[in-house]
Design goal:
Elements lengths: L5 H25 L7 H18 L6 H22 L10 H45 L41
Helix pairs in contact: 1-2, 1-3, 1-4, 2-3, 3-4
Length: 179
């Protein structure tokens, strides 16, 4: 199945945007940046999603995703810093730069592998569905039999006789009374 179809492409773009933004937020905060609100996170993911959709016309290798993630990480750093009101930190320091570079690499590799996994999963799903349809279509038609009216004997339900063949084990042995 081609993963460039609009609905799949949109799903891939959304996954790209959320993953890229999520990794960036976590590492940005770990490097000393301010924690952002859920609204700012959603706005950042929605800003990244259209670019991801443009890239999503075909399966991409990590080498293509790496520059896209670098651009996204730069924009996300500016967004996170500006949304926290820390305009003096718009130019990242060495630790922040390293963290966003790590986020860039992790996002690109993870997304490239995830993209390949999605393509393989969709191919398997199509093959499995086709095989299931073929099995259903190749079944022989059910044989219709006419039912003759016949008198059936009605049997009484069986009676369960508990302890019908039980042996008495109390008292002296039976041979003691045989004299």
């Amino acid at each position: 199945m081609h993963i460039g179809r609009p609905i799949i492409r949109g799903f891939r773009a959304l996954v790209f945007a959320v993953a890229c933004t999520g990794v960036s937020v976590g590492l940005h905060f770990a490097a000393g940046g301010a924690l952002i609100s859920l609204g700012h996170f959603a706005a950042a993911a929605l800003a990244v999603a259209p670019f991801a959709y443009l890239l999503g016309g075909a399966q991409r290798h990590w080498a293509v995703l790496l520059p896209a993630c670098a651009l996204a990480q730069g924009g996300l750093h500016v967004w996170f810093t500006a949304s926290a009101g820390h305009f003096e930190h718009l130019v990242p320091g060495p630790v922040m730069l390293l963290v966003h570079a790590l986020a860039m690499v992790v996002s690109a590799i993870w997304l490239a592998r995830g993209d390949a996994a999605l393509a393989a999963f969709l191919d398997l799903l199509v093959l499995w569905s086709a095989a299931a349809i073929l099995v259903l279509l190749s079944r022989p038609a059910p044989v219709v039999r006419t039912v003759r009216a016949r008198a059936e004997r009605v049997l009484a339900p069986p009676v369960l006789r508990l302890l019908a063949s039980s042996a008495v084990r109390r008292g002296p042995p039976a041979f003691a009374f045989s004299h």
